[in-house]
Design goal:
171 residues, 6 helices, 15% strand
Amino acid sequence: MAFFQKITKVSKKVLSKKVKYVNELTELCCDEGSRELLDSNPEIFSDEKMCKIILTALKCKSERDPLLIITWNYSTFIEENLSRDKDRSHTLDSLFQHIKDSGGVSIDDKHGVFMFNTGTTLSACLYGFPTWSHRIDGKEDVVHSIIRLNKLVDTNYELERCDYPLKNPSV
């Protein structure tokens, strides 16, 4: 019985940490659209590690630096050379390099959260993704979702879905 109680206690502690990070992020995103985006992307916002990374990035970034939060679809890069379509240059690493070359800095070293100096550089990065990474009929999308996090005023933030051009908007 003591073992079960110990596991329950540890589980509650882990769960309360997860809830803490998720709640903290939810409180920072003040508008209704942002809250709906939080609810519709559980793969990002119910993940304790991802919420913690985003919160850490928010604390270390300067006032107006936007963040790009990406959940990659790793299963689309399954060809023998880890490319999307057997072309050696069409890899996930080349997309990471594009983001880096566009001014994005990976916060988590897992290439899921990127910080940009300005909204303009972030937008240029989004519109500059190579054509091969765009939505292609009959192939899986390279991302599950891309979300832009913008600072509004004081400590309030806004989330914006920006899957274009990498994801079919109807999916």
